[in-house]
């Protein structure tokens, strides 16, 4: 019997505190906190307008070697680890797959993704492909993918190797349980221990950007309002007070 580890999920209030931040704000704040590049390049948004924040279930794929894995699509299904990572799904989870950038392997198809959605999963980030897109796109999941393919997961070059282990998703380290923030700009990895500070920093930035956006829409001087100059900051504090903030 195959047994795979679950993840340690961050507190739900911590996840909630990050939901209005967005990947761009998160990436910039994380850079100031010492994380040079948290963006998983390669996978791009395939569900425009979708935004998700949640803990990462991780799946690692390796190059296919027939003496280790030689099964077909439906042979010995309980040996197929892409199923096992989904068995761990809890509401709000995001599955992140190091598929080695492979464009010929559909890691999940319609049925697997339907199961993931039914268990409460909200997002799929794959450095590679899925299949059955014509059906999967109607599942109301967030998808960040390199592409789609008609091939099944082990048909060509790779096979699922490990579940809920550290992975390198296009050379970005993702630890099981890391928080993923993903939207139209892409998917960003947030280390759990930095999440409270990120939430605090981003909240402040979000507030002054609201003021800046207002002033710029009124024709205000970009040099004065973005970023806030000392002169504009006095005006901003007065605006905050007037807003009851």
Describe what this molecule looks like in 3D:
- It is built from eight helices and 13 strands.
- Helices cover 31% and strands 22% of the residues.
- The chain has 245 residues and is an alpha/beta fold.
- The mean pLDDT is 93.
- The longest helix is centred in the C-terminal third of the chain and has 23 residues, at 195-217.
- Strands 1, 2, 3, 4, 5, 7, 9, 12 and 13 form a nine-stranded mixed beta sheet that branches. It has a two-stranded parallel sheet with strand order 6-8.
- It has two domains: 12-190, Ribonuclease E inhibitor RraA/RraA-like (Glucose Oxidase, domain 1); 197-242, no CATH class.
- The protein has helices at 12-17, 23-32, 81-87, 110-118, 133-136, 195-217, 222-225, 230-242, and strands spanning 39-40, 44-45, 52-63, 94-98, 123-126, 129-130, 142-145, 147-148, 158-163, 167-169, 172-174, 179-183, 186-190.
